[in-house]
Here is the input.
Amino acid sequence: MQIFDVLIDEHSRIERLAHRLEAAPPEAIAMRRELLDNLRETWTHHARAEEKTFYDPLRTIDGSFDEVVLEAYANHNAIEALMRELEILNPADSRFDAKARALYYAMVRHFEEEESWIFDAAKRRLAASDPEHWAENYLSDYLSSAVSNKSSSSL
Ligand SMILES: [Fe+2]
Ligand SMILES: [Fe+2]
Here is the structure.
């Protein structure tokens, strides 16, 4: 299931960025802004592709995953709300530190949840009902959305 490897790889990249953001000193205002922009872009690409190519098809294939999928979406929304709050704060504001830390831990918790059991449960379900074809389709979707995101972000 190559798609899981791609998603886990993205998790590590996002986690490193979120860690750098929460560790950046308050006086490094430009660095904090740049890290936040970078994190938002990387996260947004990951979350939208994950929803489109993994969670949506998963709940279509097996409705018993509905609750799991909706909880994952709620986590995505909560993480995005924190990023929006950070965007309107002055990076030198002490509230920025607290929110950046909360964002980092929210991401770590979400990734741990996905990697510790959601992906495994999905793998088991998909292996029983569908051959490699499933993952390959979604992987190619995922990669093409990465390419189109890249080209639109460079406009
Ligand atoms: Fe997710
Ligand atoms: Fe994820």
The pocket of fe (ii) ion (ligand 2) is lined by residues 7, 11, 46, 50, 114 (CB under 6 Å). The domain at 2-153 is CATH 1.20.120.520 (Four Helix Bundle (Hemerythrin (Met), subunit A)). DSSP finds five helices and no strands in the chain. The helical segments are 2-23, 29-61, 66-88, 94-129, 133-153.
